[in-house]
TrEMBL record:
UniProt cross-references to Pfam families, sorted A to Z: Aldedh (PF00171)
Keyword Nucleotide-binding: no
Single annotated GO MF: oxidoreductase activity, acting on the aldehyde or oxo group of donors, NAD or NADP as acceptor
Native source species: Candidatus Planktophila dulcis
Keywords (A to Z) from UniProt: Oxidoreductase
Protein name: NADP-dependent aldehyde dehydrogenase
Gene3D superfamilies: Aldehyde Dehydrogenase, Chain A, domain 1 (3.40.605.10), Aldehyde Dehydrogenase, Chain A, domain 2 (3.40.309.10)
Length: 494
């Protein structure tokens, strides 16, 4: 059985016929990866860093074909795809630097001490080790940066794991180009090309085959809460349960103070709309809830700016249909003002829409407080004194933002939002996630399934586990734990 990509711009097919992988093929990919994994695990920090940089080089060498393919399969502009390619290669370089330093191994050595209290201490040496085979699931909205060589895959490879990645059926040709690049890098580094494979096909059962295979030791996922929950539940039913690191989206609330509106009403109103519509509203960091005082001028600017804007077609027919159905349903609700932008008619085009209501209405209509993937947001008017109670009622978030001025005293709200979100923002917008060590991209459920990050170098620790060695002679210890320290990695001793 084969399938083809569909161009969102006009709903026509694109690229070659892609064979859908059978269960036997998926099983064989995973089994081969398990055989290849030990060679990756035994690499020195220098060798691993070389592999990561070679992957970045091979992906960069494929830039022209990746831009052509990804633009066709997603309807995203060339500048966006070019930026994603750069972000993808930068992620590999960041992990290369970390791995080269050896810090990720977390080496701790406590030498034998007969006088240790409360009892004599044996020689103990601990370091982080890779898990084996990791299953990665590509996201629909980032065909490169969160796809088969995105942050999840890069961090899994950087930590020394073999990877079997589920290509997203919306951009199978792009995923195939990336697979070819990674396999070329493996070959150049004299490693088995079985260390990495992608699985193609729209069959939902592929998700089950990957999640339930006994050789898979962890899962990385970026996507919807529905599929994230399926993966978490599947992993829990296995004879050997495994961790699922799922990033599942968020409402990313913005709390706007009266002083912020008085200071910069027009810029703030336009900035919120632009952030909500960025990438056609298909970012997991899109601001989906805006809490603000009832200021007619501010609301009027939102509506007038929105009326001038159109967005690119959505990523797939199913996403566009779900969006349009949800918007039509919400628009029929009472006590709800609807503001619209310019409709895009061709392909999987939709109409950007903003809903305006008050907190009394929104609090009684749970659908208004749910994520709707696409170019929409909900502005909820309320008193600033209600901010704390509103924030308390919200579920876990990837981000939470306060738009204010120096005249505000945000400490109480900030403390509460820090409990609710993985990243809190002052006078900024949540769209745009910097790829850096200090970034945290994750949050309490349902934003993500664990208290970890899927962006930044700390993402590597999701796919490692600590191993302690007790009483072994120097000759049999892993090199990172030996007193001679031949890899020159950081060692915390005694």
């Amino acid at each position: 059985m084969t399938f083809r990509a569909v161009k969102p711009i006009d709903a026509t097919s694109y690229g070659i016929d892609i064979p859908e992988n059978s269960r036997n093929e998926v099983d064989s990919f995973i089994a081969a990866a398990a055989v290849a994994a030990p060679a990756l695990a035994q690499q020195s920090p220098k060798e691993r860093a070389q592999l990561l940089r070679e992957i970045a080089t091979q992906i960069e060498a494929s830039r022209a074909t990746l831009i052509e393919s990804a633009c066709a399969e997603t309807a995203l502009p060339e500048a966006r795809i070019a930026g994603e390619i750069t972000r993808t290669t930068v992620q590999f370089e960041l992990f290369a630097r970390l791995v080269e330093s050896g810090k990720h191994l977390g080496v701790v050595i406590d030498k034998a001490d007969p006088n240790y209290s409360p009892a004599p201490r044996p020689d103990l040496r601990k370091m982080n080790a890779p898990l084996g085979v990791v299953a990665i699931f590509a996201a629909s909205n980032f065909p490169l940066a969160f796809s088969v060589a995105g942050g999840d895959a890069a961090s899994a490879i950087a930590s020394g794991n073999a990877v079997v990645a589920k290509a997203h059926p919306s951009h199978p040709n792009t995923c195939a180009i990336v697979e070819k690049a990674i396999k070329a890098a493996l070959a150049k580094c004299k490693l088995s090309q079985d260390s990495y494979a992608i699985v193609q096909g729209p069959d939902p059962q592929i998700t089950h085959w990957l999640a339930l295979h006994p050789a898979v030791k962890a899962i990385g996922f970026t996507g919807s809460e529905i599929v994230g929950r399926i993966l978490v539940d599947l992993a829990a039913t296995r004879p050997e349960p495994i961790p699922v690191y799922a990033e599942m989206g968020s409402l990313n609330p913005i709390f706007v103070t009266s002083s912020a509106i008085a200071d910069r009403s027009e810029a703030l109103a336009k900035g919120i709309v632009d952030s909500a519509l960025m990438g056609s509203g298909q970012f997991c960091t899109k601001p989906g809830l805006i809490f603000a005082p009832n200021n007619p001028e501010f609301i009027a600017t939102v509506k007038s700016h929105l009326a001038t804007l159109a967005v690119a077609p959505l990523l797939s027919k199913s996403i566009a249909e779900r969006y349009s159905k949800a918007i039509s349903h919400l628009a029929s609700q009472a006590k709800l003002e609807v503001a619209s932008g310019i409709s895009t008619e061709q392909g999987f085009g939709v109409t950007p829409t903003v809903f305006i209501t008050d907190w009394a209405t929104a609090s009684q209509n749970p659908e208004l407080l749910e994520e709707h993937f696409g170019p929409t947001t909900v502005i909820i008017t309320c008193k600033e004194e209600e901010f704390l109670a509103i924030a308390t009622s919200l579920k876990g978030q990837l981000t939470a933002t306060i738009q204010g001025t120096d005249a505000d005293k945000p400490e109480s709200l900030l403390a509460l939002l820090a409990q609710k979100a993985g990243r809190v923002i002052w006078n900024g917008f949540p769209t745009g996630v910097a790829v850096t060590t200090a970034m945290n991209h994750g949050g309490p459920w349902p934003a993500s399934s664990s208290h970890t990050t899927s962006v930044g170098t700390d993402a590597i620790y999701r796919f490692m586990r600590p191993v302690a060695y007790q009483g072994f002679s120097q000759s049999v210890l892993p090199k990172a734990l030996q007193d001679s320290n031949p890899w020159s990695v950081p060692q915390s001793i005694n």
